Amino acid sequence: MSTLDVAASAIRRHETVEIVLLLAFVGGFIDAYTWIVHGVLANAQTANVIFLWVFAMAGDWAKAFHFAPPILAFTVGIVIAAWLRRVAGERAGALSVLLEILFLIAIGILHNRLPDLAGTLGISMVAAIQTAMFIKVEGTVCSTVMITGNMRQTVENIFAAVYGGAPLGTLRKSVILFALCAVFGCGAAAGAFATRTIPNLALGIPVVALLIVLLRCETTPREVVE
Question: N or C, which end of the chain is more exposed by having fewer CB within 10 Å?
Fold first, then answer.
C-alpha cells in the first residue's frame, strides 16, 4: 500500500472534506446569528473577552457582563465534548452533532420566551462542542468555527509549495483550508441574510446542515489501515 493510500484509508469519517465544509458553514452562520440578535459572538471567544475588558475598563459593567455568559457557556460546552469523547469513543462525533441539533431546535423554540438564555448560552455551547470535536480535515488540524488558523496554514502551505520542497499533498491541503475560510464566510453571509429576513426560522438552516453531517457520519464507512 502506498503512502497516499495509507493516508486516505486512515481518514476518520468526521474528518472528510464534505463534513468539515458543512460544519464551517454552520460555524459562520451561528456566529452571524448571535452577533445580529444578541451582540455577542458564539465562536470567537477572543472577541468576547476583548469586548468584556474594554467595557470593564471604561466602567460600563452592564455592557462588560453582557459578554460573560457566552464565555462561560463555551467553557461548559468544551467540558461536554470532553465527556463525550471519554464515554462514547468513535461515536462521539456523531453524538455531538445530534446534541448540537437538539440544542439548536430547543433554542429556536425558547427564543421568543427566553431570548438571552437561549441565544447567548445555548448557541455558545453548540459552538464549543463543535470546536472541540471537529479539529481535523483529512488528518490536518483545522477549525470549523473560525478562520484565523486556517488562513495561516493556507498561506504557509502555498509558500512552501512555491518555494519548493513541500511534502506531497501540500497544495491540496491549501485548497481545502482556503475552502474552509470561504465556506465559513458564506455561512456568515447566509446567517446574516436569514436572521434579518426570517428571524424565527433562521436556525432551521444550520439544523438542516447538521442533519446532513449526522447522516454522513453514520453512513460514510471509516476505512482501516491494512
Answer: C
The CATH number of whichever domain residue 132 belongs to comes to 1.20.1250
pLDDT for residue 175: 92
Q: What is the pTM for the complete model shown?
A: 0.85
CA separation for the pair 126, 37 (Å, rounded): 16
Average pLDDT (34-42) is: 83
Q: What is the pLDDT of residues 48-93, one digit of tens each?
A: 899 999 999 999 998 898 888 888 888 988 999 999 988 888 788 8
Closest listed residue to residue 81, CA positions, set 21, 135, 33:
135
Grid cell, residue 65, equals 457582563
Confidence at residue 106, expressed as pLDDT on a 0 to 100 scale: 84
Question: How many domains, the chain?
Answer: 1
Residue 65 · residue 117 · CB < 8 Å: no
Among 215, 217, 31, 224, residue whose Cα is nearest residue 119 = 31
Q: Is position 163 within any domain?
A: yes
Cα distance between residue 30 and residue 194, in whole Å: 11
Altogether, the residues listed in the chain come to a count of 226
For the residues 9-16, what does the mean pLDDT come to? 66
- Whole-number Å distance between alpha carbons of 47 and 15: 27
Q: Is residue 89 in a domain?
A: yes
Residue 60, amino acid:
D
What is the domain range of residue 106?
10-38+71-218
Determine, yes or no, domain membership for 50: no
